[in-house]
Amino acid sequence: MLSLTGTWRQMGRRYGGLVREQLQELYSEITDDIVRRGADYDAQLESARLLASSSSADLNELLKGMSERA
Fold this sequence. Notes:
This protein is mainly α and about 70 residues long. The protein is about 80% helix and about 0% strand. The relative contact order is 0.25.
């Protein structure tokens, strides 16, 4: 079991560091899929913005921390 402490951003950084390889693999798979589908880059950014705006501030901080370490 994993137990993290600190701010949401700090916990995201720790978790991102622990699962770095898995996150990089997932990112690569998703990116490849998006390219295969021919998805528009600007549309992808807009979708990401909408998702982030509907997520809690804590979740956004956790994800930012994960991205900083992965």
